[in-house]
């Protein structure tokens, strides 16, 4: 969350928010902005809505039951997008990332996070997951890729990228 450097007026989207922990953290940072989230699980929407009830009530957090392959409208361009342990479930993830890039303002940021939890996962599994995310982001037209690793067991990879200001690229 800190790597995305969310600013007070930012408009942020999280795909696959699960119980809504990151949504709550973003709402605490973008105090004059808007936090959007989609998740295709109705149970997760209920759970996250309860966790973020106060911010939902005042219209700063907007949680929608939707899948990444059928994105709703979020109005004005977004400043930042996050997906944690979610890209692996998406159909045609490069196409999904291309669509998400279209929602970001020029120089907007994206962070894709992965902690491989398959049996026997090791540091090497995380390295490979980060490489796959980097490939997807590059194919989707993102630039300035960076990888940060959080030293848990197995390690967590966070791949950060930028929507280039030249929108033709
Ligand atoms: C492993 S959970 C991670 C939840 C949360 N990001 C976290 O780290 O605690 C994956 C989440 O992505 C959501 N998800 C999976 N595929 C999705 C899709 N195609 N569209 C929207 N959400 C999806 C699931 O419902 C689930 O809440």
User: What would CATH call the class?
Assistant: Alpha Beta
- The CATH architecture designation is 3-Layer(aba) Sandwich
Number of H/I helices = 5
In CATH, the topology is named Rossmann fold
What percent of residues are in strands? 25-35%
Strand order of the largest sheet: 3-2-1-4-5-7-6
Number of domains: 1
Structural class: alpha/beta
Mean pLDDT: 95
Main pleated-sheet profile: 7 strands, mixed
- Order of helical and strand elements: EHEHHEEHEHEE
Bound molecules: S-adenosylmethionine
Total count of strands: 7
Fraction of residues in helix: 25-40%
**Shape field:** globular
Report the CATH superfamily: Vaccinia Virus protein VP39
Distance between the termini: 27 Å
What Rg, in angstroms, do the CA atoms define? Answer: 15 Å
Flag low-confidence runs: none
What key attributes describe this structure?
Rossmann fold, alpha/beta, 7 strands, 169 residues
Reconstruct the topology from this structure.
Elements lengths: L10 E5 L5 H9 L4 E6 L2 H10 L1 H5 L3 E5 L12 E7 L8 H11 E11 L8 H17 L3 E8 L5 E7 L7
Parallel strand pairs: 1-2, 1-4, 2-3, 4-5
Antiparallel strand pairs: 5-7, 6-7
The structure holds S-adenosylmethionine.
């Amino acid at each position: 969350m800190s790597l995305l450097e969310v600013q007070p007026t930012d408009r942020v989207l999280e795909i696959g928010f699960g119980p809504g922990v990151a949504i709550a953290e973003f709402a605490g940072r973008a105090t004059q902005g808007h936090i959007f989230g989609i998740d295709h699980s109705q149970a997760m929407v209920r759970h996250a809505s309860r966790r973020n009830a106060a911010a939902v009530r005042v219209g700063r957090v907007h949680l929608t039951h939707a899948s990444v392959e059928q994105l709703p409208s979020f109005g004005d361009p977004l400043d930042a997008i996050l997906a944690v342990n979610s890209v692996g479930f998406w159909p045609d993830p490069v196409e999904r990332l291309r669509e998400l890039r279209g929602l970001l303002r020029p120089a907007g940021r994206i962070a894709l996070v992965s902690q491989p939890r398959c049996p026997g996962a090791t540091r090497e599994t995380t390295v490979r997951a980060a490489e796959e995310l980097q490939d997807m982001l590059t194919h989707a037209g993102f630039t300035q890729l960076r990888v940060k690793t959080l030293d848990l067991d197995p390690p967590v990879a966070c791949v950060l990228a930028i929507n280039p200001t030249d929108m033709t690229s």
